[in-house]
Each structure stands twice: as C-alpha cells, then as structure tokens.
Amino acid sequence: EQDPGVDVWVPHKWYGVPMYDSAFDISSSASQQFLREFCQNLRETDCDEEGCKPVGKLILQTTDAVSCFIEDFDAWNGGARYEGAEFLEKLHAFRQSKVSSVGIDRVAWEQSIGFVEGELRYVQVRAKMSL
C-alpha cells in the first residue's frame, strides 16, 4: 500500500519520517574501528560484474571515491582516539568546524554526521561505485 504522504508524481518531495535506532552508538572504540575497517574494505571490495571492469573493484579507484568521516576526524585530531562522551564532544566540534576533504561531497560534515536534538542519531559513508 502506498504511503499516504507520498505523491506518486513527485516522490522526491516526501522522504518519510526518520526512525532512529535507540541503540545506535559509535562512541566505543570497537564501533569506531569497525567504521575505519568498513571504509577500507569498501575501497578494496572486488567486483566481477561487467560494469566493474577493467579494474574489477566495486568502488571507483580514485582518491575521492569514498567519503568516510572517521578518517577525516582522525586526521583532524592528530590521530588521538576518544570514547564515550569525550568522543561525541570532539565529533560535534569536528562536524561544526570541518568540510569533507574528499571531492565526492566537499560539503560540511553536518550532512553526514547527524546530531538531532543534541544526540548522535546517524552517520553516513558515501562512495562512488563503479556500477
């Protein structure tokens, strides 16, 4: 059944209502390390599909193909690692003061690091796929 808020002729005008996961938390060192590894694995993922040739990778092999905030965050704070409330405070300051260093977006991190009513509710990793 069609969502009552969606006009089938202009679906881009209604994105719905966000549903946040109350358990979402990237302030632990394990969660942050997962993000670092996810971004690296994303760059290295093989792809056998025709659209991935001739390189054979899922992501374009350019320096600006993956926008991963945690990497810019690490560089911004000199590689220091934080957890819990201290991580969230630093991340909030980073979000307000920095623009992505990756050409895929070159926009303020406010779009990829989502603080809603003072709570971190979402993060985004962006990538240019070869398909």
Keywords:
two-stranded antiparallel ribbon, 131 residues, two-stranded antiparallel sheet, alpha+beta
Q: How far apart are the termini?
A: 31 Å
Mean pLDDT across all amino acids: 87
Structural class: alpha+beta
Q: List the uncertain runs.
A: none
H and E string: HEHHEEE
Largest sheet: 2 strands, antiparallel
Helical segment count: 3
Helix fraction bin: 25-40%
Q: Determine the strand fraction and express it as a percent band.
A: 5-15%
Number of E-state strands: 4
Gyration radius (Cα, Å) is: 17 Å
Side by side, the strands of the main sheet go 1-4
Structure description:
This protein has helices at 29-44, 69-76, 84-97; strands spanning 66-68, 113-116, 119-123, 125-127. It has 131 residues and is of the alpha+beta class. The strands form two sheets. A two-stranded antiparallel sheet has the order 1-4. It is built from three helices and four strands, in the order H-E-H-H-E-E-E. The model has no long low-confidence stretch (mean pLDDT 87). The longest helix has 16 residues, at 29-44. The two termini are 31 Å apart. Strand 2 and strand 3 (119-123) form a beta hairpin.
